[in-house]
Design goal:
The complex is a heterodimer.
Chain A lengths: L22 H39 L2 H4 L3 E2 L6 E2 L2 H32 L2 H16 L2 H27 L18 H25 L3 H9 L4 H30 L2 H6 L19 H9 L5 H31 L6
Antiparallel strand pairs in A: 1-2
Helix pairs in contact in A: 1-11, 3-4, 3-6, 3-8, 4-6, 5-6, 6-8, 7-8, 8-11, 10-11
Chain B lengths: L1 H4 L11 H12 L1 H12 L3 H25 L2 H37 L2 H5 L17 H31 L5 H12 L3 H15 L5 H25 L3 H9 L4 H12 L1 H16 L3 H6 L18 H9 L4 H39 L1
The chains are: A mainly alpha, B mainly alpha.
Chain lengths: 328, 353
């Protein structure tokens, strides 16, 4: 009796190697390759040009350029130190992320697990629309519409939670405007769609059997979310949050309108009407700066670029690792 | 037996009439109750929403959950309520932006707001004179110039990432992703250094240069996704029939991915059309209409908004709102077009299945 194999082992799909054979092909691949490597050239050019321009300032100011807290272009020698602005950028980004993350996670959960298909598509479109809002329009809205509302929120926060240092203010008469709190909200509006779209993609690729299994074992939506969904997708969510952080730190125009830029360093009094943001500072000083101060702004841009480059690199590594299905 | 005493929980069953009534009550009661409370006690409405409405709604939903599913109903209710609460918040923020731009912008907009330029306009000139015509033209020209360079290059990058089998693909992808996080103001500074190094004058062209590093990664990323959606068998079939790679690309893959690549173009446009900071650094704003992007001043819609928002005159702010509405219409138009194109692709796919 001859035995026929019941289940022949499935053959692995053969990986085809594509080689350029004709002359046209060689040109085709060569030109696309040149185009692709332009990405390196562009990053190198940006770094190179900014470094070249800002080298004298960096050399002159040393490490104090990053950590010091005075910006005085009129003194001799010039003191250009970026500390408060850098810290302010970070502070606003953190506030923005704390506000945006719960909203983005809820939105993603709603779209993937709760809404019927048609509504989910509408919600996705709305979130994408939010992502497409130009930052100058958000700045306009933030200054003329949102600031009055948010300053009221800030007032309420201060009157009930003022004993917590981050919600305290020195002078309650100043109206609670132009504070890191408000800038953080504006930034949050910008990064909600970023975190939502990353999270949504990761949620939608989760193993449905795993979730249904957890529900069948008697888990509630909440426990399933905490014990099944979050552990498997937290990597990607963190990546999305970092992408949002990168965007928040680089945000310029909208913050410029709603924040009072000040070199009195504000360590964490969120409702105080003073704060900092590197990108907005560049924009604010640019018109009046000349000569060496301009080079100082270039150096600020360089610092900003390097910081966002590092954050984005880490974020993308995390996101790519959390989305193995996107590998080719 | 203890089993028989437990309530029979059947989550898969549709809610019956009684349950639906309970759900309706749980949805309908807390909000009016909160409003009533806020009204009677002079409590702050914003605070009441968080401190009164949310707990009330949680309790109401939790009660329904317990009655329907027993203890696990609490967790269900809590997550549903919190999710909907936060999502509504996002929606309210978005609608607030859209609503205020449309209402405030609608007041400023009229026919000549589109057609006239800004030459004889001072901050106190009434809204019947002057408009954003020059800024619309400027936006189109600057963004158009950027598109001419960024789209072919971005698509070529995407082709490299999907069609070739080189080893540096991952590195290229990493760098492209890193570029997509480039702060827009840094891109402006970069072009500024080049302007100063080469002594060229500021014009629409330099503005277009500053937008280029911002548009390129968006186009490359979306185009890569689009090319990836084309089944690889199509390509192998073309190659097996003896087509060289470039003809396989231009005659098989490109037509198949056409709508996806259009989406890449449109999303790239939407990405840069609202950019402000790099243009402020690299362009000379002008209030006259200029048709030459290579020489002299030029204004785009975001710069127009930026300049008018800086002044506190009522009419200036109205102009800023009007320009914001025009800009939003432009973005919405591009965006809608991208939606329609990418949608027709998916429906076609479904039809072919």
């Amino acid at each position: 009796m001859s035995q026929t194999p019941v289940n022949p082992p499935a053959q692995e799909r053969r990986k085809l190697v594509i080689k350029p054979l004709s002359k046209g092909d060689k040109w085709f691949f060569r030109s696309t390759s040149i185009a692709a490597h332009f990405a390196f050239v562009l990053v190198a050019l940006i770094l190179g040009f900014l470094l070249w321009k800002s080298w004298p300032v960096i050399q002159g100011q040393g490490f104090d350029f990053v950590f010091g807290s005075t910006w005085d272009a009129d003194s001799d020698p010039m003191v250009l130190q970026l500390g408060p602005m850098l810290w302010g950028s970070l502070l606003i980004a953190i506030v923005g992320i704390i506000i945006a993350t719960p909203m983005a996670l809820s939105m993603a959960y709603l779209i993937v697990f709760m809404l019927p298909n048609r509504l989910a598509r509408i919600a996705t479109t709305l979130v994408d629309l939010l992502a497409a809002l130009p930052s100058v329009v958000l700045g306009l809205w933030g200054l003329l519409v949102f600031t009055p509302v948010a300053s009221h929120w800030a007032e309420v926060l201060n009157s009930y939670l003022g004993w917590i240092p981050i919600f305290g203010v020195a002078d309650a008469e100043n109206g609670f405007m132009r504070s890191p709190f408000i800038a953080g909200w504006i930034v949050a509006v910008m990064i909600v769609p970023i975190i939502t779209s990353v999270t949504r993609e990761i949620f939608s690729q989760l193993d449905r059997d795993l979730i249904n299994g957890a529900l069948a074992l008697g888990g509630s939506r909440l426990s399933t979310f905490r014990r099944v969904i979050m552990p498997t997708s937290s990597g990607g969510v963190i990546g999305g949050v970092l992408l949002g952080l990168g965007r928040a730190i680089g945000e310029t125009v909208a913050i410029f309108y709603v924040l009072n830029l000040s070199f009195d360093i504000n360590w964490g009094a969120l409702l105080e009407p003073q704060g900092g943001a590197v990108a907005s500072w560049i924009l604010a000083r640019f018109g009046e700066a000349n000569g060496a101060e301009k080079d100082g702004l270039m150096a600020a841009g360089l610092v900003l670029f390097v910081v966002t480059l590092i954050i984005n690199y880490i974020a993308n590594v995390i996101v790519n690792r959390a989305q193995p299905w996107r590998k080719n | 037996m203890s089993f028989s005493e437990r309530p029979t929980v059947q989550p898969w069953r549709k809610a019956n009439l009684k349950r639906r009534f309970e759900i309706l009550l749980a949805v309908a009661i807390p909000l009016p109750l909160t409003m009533l409370f806020a009204l009677l006690s002079n409590f702050d409405v914003n605070l009441a929403l968080i401190a009164v409405f949310l707990p009330l709604q949680l309790i109401a939903a939790g009660l329904v959950g317990v009655r329907a599913y027993g203890k696990r109903g609490i967790g269900d209710a809590a997550l549903v309520v919190i999710t909907i609460f936060f999502s509504t918040f996002v929606l309210v923020l978005l609608l607030s932006v859209l609503f205020s731009v449309i209402v405030e912008g609608g007041r400023a907009i009229s026919w000549q707001f589109f057609s006239q330029n800004n030459v004889y306009v001072s901050p106190t000139t009434s809204l019947e004179y002057g408009g954003v015509g020059h800024a619309i033209l400027g936006t189109l020209m600057v963004v158009g110039l950027t598109t001419l360079a960024a789209v072919p290059l971005g698509i070529a990058m995407a082709v490299y990432l999907t069609q070739s089998q080189s080893k540096t693909r991952n590195l290229v992808r990493t760098f492209t992703q890193a570029l997509s996080g480039l702060p827009s103001v840094v891109s402006g500074l970069f072009i500024l250094t080049i302007i100063e190094a080469t002594q060229m004058g500021r014009s629409g062209f330099t503005g277009a240069l500053a937008l280029f590093p911002l548009m390129l990664p968006t186009v490359a990323r979306v185009a890569e996704e689009a090319l990836r959606l084309v089944p690889v068998d199509l390509r192998y079939a073309a190659l097996a029939l003896g087509a060289p790679n470039y003809r396989a690309f231009f005659q098989v893959i490109l037509p198949a991915a056409k709508s996806g690549l259009m989406t890449a173009l449109l999303l790239g446009l939407a990405r840069v059309v609202g950019e402000t900071a790099p243009l402020i650094l690299t362009m000379n704003p002008s209030s006259a209409t200029s048709l030459n992007p290579f020489d002299g001043g030029m204004t785009t819609l975001p710069i127009y908004i930026y300049n008018y928002l800086a002044s506190s005159y009522q009419t200036s702010q109205a102009r800023a709102w009007g320009a914001a509405l025009v800009l939003l219409m432009l973005v919405g138009f591009l965006f809608g077009l991208a939606r329609i194109l990418s949608k027709s692709k998916t429906t076609k796919k479904k039809a072919s299945k």
